[in-house]
Specification:
This protein has about 160 residues and is α/β, with parallel strands linked by helices. It has a single domain, classed as 3-Layer(aba) Sandwich (Hypothetical Protein Ychn, Chain: A). Helix 2 links the parallel strand 1 and strand 2. The radius of gyration is 19 Å and the shape is globular. The relative contact order is 0.21.
Length: about 160
């Protein structure tokens, strides 16, 4: 019989919950909803959840930014003047009729349930933003700090 190598597991890893991260890089309805819905559901499954806001997605965590999320139709339709406004009204009507919470309401639920919101330091520097420009409870991290956490996560998604 072959010798079997005995493996030991770091006890701190056994007791820590599974983690996941979601990267949000768009300040549109279809950029905001997936990260929030997935993060909230991850928390409800007992996982730690982080949403990392970068590039245009950082506008969602700016004060008043979540209310400004729009829907821009893909392809040539999105380039037609005024089409984004029409599409946004239609999408928000569908969201309301389906009794889906608004982006602002989902963000509040997410924070209450322990989802961690993180703003990208590089994006903040590029857009000349300060911590005062962001909603309450937003952590600021460099890409390196985010990756230090993400490399130990079970799930990492770009939404």
């Amino acid at each position: 019989m072959a010798d079997v190598e005995e493996r030991t597991v770091d006890p701190s890893l056994e007791s820590s919950p599974e983690s996941c991260t979601f990267i949000c890089s768009r300040d549109t309805l279809d950029g905001a909803y997936p990260a929030l819905v997935l993060a909230i559901n991850a928390r409800r499954l007992g996982m730690e959840a982080t949403v990392f806001y970068t590039f245009m997605g950082i506008n969602i965590v700016r004060r008043g930014g979540a209310a400004k999320c729009r829907f821009i139709p893909p392809g040539p339709m999105g380039a037609i003047p005024g089409m984004a406004s029409v599409a946004t009204r239609m999408m928000k009507k569908q969201i309301d009729e389906a009794e889906i919470p608004t982006v602002e309401e989902l963000m509040e639920v997410a924070q209450l349930e322990g989802v961690k919101f993180v703003a990208c330091r590089m994006t903040m520097d590029m857009m000349k933003l300060s911590a005062e420009d962001l909603m309450e409870g937003i952590e600021i991290q460099t890409a390196e700090d985010y990756l230090k956490h993400a490399r130990s996560c079970k799930i990492n998604m770009f939404t």
